[in-house]
Structure formats: C-alpha cells, structure tokens
Amino acid sequence: MQNRSISLIAGATLLFVLPPLWAQNYVAPRAADGHADLSGIWEALNTANWDLEDHSPQAGPMWQTGAIGAEPAGQSVVEDGVIPYLPAALEEKKINFANRRTNDPEAKCYMPGIPRANYMPYPFQIVQSPRGVLFVYEYGSANRFVNMGKPVKPVSDTWMGTNNGHWEGDTLVVDATGFNGLAWFDRAGDFASDKLHVVERFTRTDREHLQYEAAMEDPSVFSRPWKISMPLYRRVERNAQLLEFKCVEFAEELLYGQYRKK
Amino acid sequence: MLPEHRLVRIVVLCVIVAGTAFAQANQPSGNWTPPKTAWGDPDLQGVWTSDDSFGVPFERPRKYGNRKFLTDDEYAARAKENELISTSIQAGVTPQAGYWLQHDGVDYQPYPSNWSEYARRTSRQTSLIVDPEDGQLPPLTPQAMLLRAGSIVASRRKPHPESWEDINMYGRCITRGVLGSMLPVMYSNGTDILQSPGLVVIRYEMIHEARVIPIDPPNKPHPHLPAGLRTYMGDPRGHWESNSLVVETTNFIGGRLGVGTNGDGVSYSEDLRLVERFTRTSDRSIQYEVTVFDPKTFTASWTVAFPITQEPGYQIFEYACHEGNYSMSNILSGARAEEKVQSVVK
Known about the structure:
By secondary structure, chain A is of the alpha+beta class.
C-alpha cells in the first residue's frame, strides 16, 4: 500500500516536473533577439468567445438573424470545467447573461480586455520588437503593448491592462493587471472585477500553433484562481494580413438609437 | 510676481534655448550616424510626438506669401507665445493665447488648459503644407467643390444633430484617418513606432490604432489589396530608401474623412494615395513628410512636412475614446430636449 502511494507520488511529481508532451521535440525558430519567434497572425478556432464553459447549442440573443446568430455547442476551455465563482458573483453572471444582447461589451464595440481579446473570432498579430511585444487585434483596432523591460506598475485602470512580460525558456509569460473591471470574458456574461490579475503563457508548439494559457485571480469574484487553455492557429493563407474591423459604426444604433430624431 | 525686466530676460533665454534646441532637432550634425536595428534597418523606434508643431497653421497665412520659415522677429513672437502657453499650463491657469484666446467670448467653455500639450521647441515653419510653394491646398476639382459646398449647406440646414451620423468621425470615435492621426492637435499626439524584421508598426495614441506595415525590397512592392476591399486606415506597403521609410497607402474608404486635423476638412475620395516618408534626423527627431495624391479631389498633389520629436517622460496611455464617449449621448439627448422645449414654446 505504502509502495503504491510512493509510486503515485513519484508519478505525479514526474508529471509535474516533465514539460508537457508538445514541448518535448519542437524547438521554435529564433527572433532577432534570440528568443523564440512567436510573431505572426494567429486566431483561436473554438467557441470560447460564446462561453468559456461547456455549452449546448442554443438560440443566440437575436432571433431576428435566425440561425446566423445562434450559439454552436462547445466544450469548456476552463481547467476543471467550471469557473469557481463566489455565490454573489455567480448571480451577477446570470444577470449579465440575461442582458447580453445589450450589455455585452462586444455588442457595444468596446475593447475586449484580456484574456478575451485572444479568443475572439478575429485574427491578431504578434509583433516582437526590441522595444517590447505588441499585440495588434483586428477587432475594434484594439492593441496592447507588453513591456519586456523592468516591470511597470499600472498608473490607471484600463480595458487592456498594464502588461509586463518575460521569457521562461521559450514561453512568453505576460503578467496583466490594472484592469477597469468592465470587460467580460465571453458572450455568456462571465466577468471579473478591477482586481483581476491574469498571467498568460504563449508557447509555440510547432510551425502553425501556439499553446495559450491564462490563469485568472480575483478574490472579490472567484473562490480560487482558475485557468483556461487552448491552441491558437496560424493564419496560413499566402495573402494573410490583418485587416480592419472598426465596429463603432455597427454599435451606434444600439447605443444611441433612443436619441435619434423621430 | 517677477519684475518685468527679469521676465523679459527669462523669455529671451527661453527663446535662445528653444532656438538652439530647434536647430539641433532639425539639422543633423556632421558626425551623427542614424542608428540601425540589429537586423540592419534604419531604427525609427520610440515614442514620438507632433507637439512641437502644435500651433503651426495647416495652410500658410497669406501674409507669408511663398516664405516657408519665420523671420527672427516672427520666430521670437511665436516662441514668446509658446512660452506663455507652457508656463500657464504648468501653473494651471488659462493661457491668454492661441486656442484659448480664439475661444474667448464664445458661448461654450473651452477645454481647461490642463488638457493641453504645448510645443517644447518652437517651430520656424510658416505652415504645415510645404508644397505647393504658396503653402495652400491646391484648388479642388469642380466635382469636389460641389461635394464640399453640398456638405456645408446640408450641415447648416440642421441646427442640431439628428443622429450620430451628423457628428464627425472623430466625435464618433471611429477614426481620424492616416493624415488626421499625425497632424498635431491639442493632446494625445503620441506616435509609437516599433520594428521587427520585415515590419514597421505605427501605433497612434488617439483612438489606439496600429498600422502594421510590411516592408518590401526596394522596387519590388507586393501588390495592394484588390479594389473591392477598403478600410479607413487603408492598405500600407513600405520600403526603405536610404535612411527613409517610405510608406505607400491605398484602398481607403472615400467620402467620409477629411484631409485636415482630426480627419476634418475637405473630404478625400476612394482614389486617395498617400506617400509618407519617415527620416531620422537626430537622436530625438524624425522628419515626417506625406504627399497626398487624389486627382478626384485636388487638381494637384500636395505635401505636408513637420518633425516628430521625443519628449522626456512622454508615455502613451490607453485612449478609450468610444468606450467613454459620454459626449455623444449628451449632445444627442441635449438636442432632443431642446427641440422638445422649442415645440412647446412656439
């Protein structure tokens, strides 16, 4: 019995210490500064932007668009399946869901925040420069600069956060704080407060994929830290380039329609 | 209060310092070598601002004729005004100069001065337009003249905005366009330039736009997007000519944005083609130049040029324009409330 627990512990330790399977035999090409090259145009290929947790197919918030606006089924990208909300926060999430047609910041064309920006159904480009790493998102002309130098403290609350990055081997680790608490995680109303702390990890697993992880911590909303993970896919089209999705024009009737002259 | 003669001395000193700084910013000294990136491209990276050209007229006032630079006396007067503006802003009082003087007596409050940037080094330019010779926009084509007159007449018919569509693109927080993003205004004139092999990214502080510019070998540009795909910021292609980054941008949406500050002014057409040049001239200065080709709108091409410079301590902050656009709801709801009162009163 004792032997068995020892071997279990040894096994668990081994699992913990060993790098994940995908990291074992791929060495990413180098960027100009010698670090792993993560640059390129990437996009998630899942339904996390609809709902981070497991979700069955269902009608979307707009029956007028028929099946076009309906929600496809999708599996949870949350480790352990469920976001560990505190009871009051779970009630707030349910209210968000009920009001998602008008209250989801995506409907209003507001900046997506972190981590949501990385799994919206739009491509984004990673630019690795000697000054830092810039994430340029097609959605809403959003972007965020990741400072790779001496970490800086947030000086004001923002949608996209204050982002400090560093390398752990070939993994880009981004520590993001200084959020304004207004962004949602998805169209299902999942949310956090301005105390949100996100630690993201970007690892290139082969030519066409990045493994993306984000660990969330916010004691005012969640009972414990939690994590999402998913692959990001390279846009391999020969003519792939980031285009423009300035969505303000598509949200003005929703936001200001009540003030239009009748 | 400072005795008057001491104040004069300070101003004179500031003028001299500003003048020296300007000369340094614009005339590369003989032994200065432009920096290169690790992969051998000219290095334009950093946070730059157009603050130093704030207050320089877009079109040249007629009194200067074909003269591109101020005389020493004119320069001293502008430096004095800049000094007044900068000391007032730093002291938290309203400057009796420039924008604030223009808004004196107008029936709405001008911005408090703590919103405003000011020129750290006084420019000698008489106008931002450097070509044609007279510093004026070339005459409009008859078609563009008609469109321009039409839009002015239409706006006069509406005393209050009927919807957001009667507010300009900047007021709606959509964009200021490529030209409007670079021209100096009252605040948020920051331009962040980043490079990586094969790419230059220009990130504007206001409305947080990033232009990702692919760099092609000289004389081998890869083709622009097809004509059916158009965007506000257009489709840029870059290459290096000696130490200059040259960016050619096409595929613009026409008829919605203008060529002036903040995207106001004469509307350009979908045939707009911009050729920008970024040339590093010192450790803290890039000469920016943009030539505007739009034969549907202008009878000739024209060029704007001014330096963008570094300011110690300048940081780019997140500019959440649309997310915080309370003025849109306030303007429109105010207009509806006023109409309601008018309908009762008459």
